[in-house]
Amino acid sequence: MENLAGKIVNTGMEALLAGLLAALLAQVIKLILDIIINKRVDFRIFTTTGGMPSSHSAGVVALSISIGIMSGFMSPIFAVSLGYAFVVMYDAAGIRRASGKMAVCLNKMIADFYKHDINSAGTKLKEMLGHTPKEVLCGAILGVLFAFFFHYIILL
């Protein structure tokens, strides 16, 4: 009887698993870095966005590279998946990052305006929304390495 790895090699399930596991690995790395830097364990890291490395980048790049390994790096499906990865990474470093900077500014304005009764202002806006280009790049590198490792080491 064929093992599980043999059933997913060179299938869409391999690409999906590579993407999901690379994103999960990036989140674990964030947790480890947070423990080293802050000397405490904060499992909320798993549910937050932003930070080093970008789990979004790791996931979409691992997905794309897996498709490239299976279908060829000149195939139309690889081009589509790579385009998707670029959109996600641009969004992480561009639009969501800008939203986070805007949230910092708005939180400061609200705090200044409601100095005497800060509780009436409601909850603060989430400030850590996006990634720096360095965080996106590190996530992308992690995704490339993980996809090759997953295909050639774990599955074969």
Question: End-to-end distance, in Å?
Answer: 16 Å
Return residue spans where pLDDT drops below 50 for at least 5 consecutive residues: none
Oligomerization state: single chain
Bin the strand percentage. Answer: under 5%
Number of helices in the DSSP assignment? 6
Class from secondary-structure proportions: mainly alpha
Can you tell me the overall shape? elongated
Taking the sheet with the most strands, its summary is:
none
Helix content: 55-70%
Overall average residue pLDDT: 84
Question: Measured on Cα atoms, how large is the radius of gyration?
Answer: 19 Å
Strands, count: 0
Order of helices and strands: HHHHHH
Write the SSE topology.
Blueprint: H1 4-8, H2 12-38, H3 55-71, H4 76-93, H5 95-113, H6 133-154
Overview in brief:
This protein has 156 residues and is an all-alpha fold. 69% of the residues lie in helices and 0% in strands. α3 packs antiparallel against α4 and α4 (76-93) packs parallel to α5.
Question: Could you characterize what this model shows?
Answer:
The chain has 156 residues and is mainly α. It is built from six helices and no strands. It has helices spanning 4-8, 12-38, 55-71, 76-93, 95-113, 133-154. Helix 2 (12-38) packs antiparallel against helix 3 (55-71) and helix 4 packs parallel to helix 5 (95-113). The longest helix has 27 residues, at 12-38. The protein starts with a helix and ends with a helix. The model has no long low-confidence stretch (mean pLDDT 84).
